[in-house]
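Weekly structure sync, notes
Attendees: PL (lead), two postdocs, one rotation student
Agenda item 3: pending single-chain targets
PL asked that the sequence for the first pending target be pasted directly into the notes so everyone works from the same version. It is reproduced below exactly as submitted, 146 residues in total.
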Amino acid sequence: MDRFLSNAVNRIDSKGRVSVPANFRQVLAAKGFSELYALQSINHPAIDVGGMDLLERYEARMAQEDPFGETFADMSLFTYGDGAFLKFDAEGRIAVTDFIRSHTGIDDKVVFVGRNDFFQLWEPSRFEAHRAEARQRLQSMRGAAR
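Predicted structure, written out during the meeting:
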């Protein structure tokens, strides 16, 4: 298993921790990641989460820009200023911090959503609304192609 697939809703415990789904932990373990890189999604009220490869992908893209230019500055702010490292505890849980809650609106439940080489954290009702909109866009594209 080398991709983040499917989605799962998990409850946040009284100490503000949530269990990362076992199948997601298996992907992370197979890739050798013991620490997670997370950043606030630009387009959605979600947190993008992955291993160091996710951070390295953004850094490689930034390296293509003029280090004194506005695009580089914007990308640096997004990558580092809107990013954080998350650590697992011994039971495979992560803390749902203010960094996560303020951007997503997450309260007592988290939806983990597989996105191939990374996953996202969503507030359940926001995810359901986004998923319905995405499905509608895809159906409209399919209808237009016919």
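Discussion points:
- The helical segments are 22-30, 52-62, 70-81, 98-104, 124-145.
- DSSP finds five helices and eight strands in the chain.
Action: rotation student to compare against the earlier draft before next sync.
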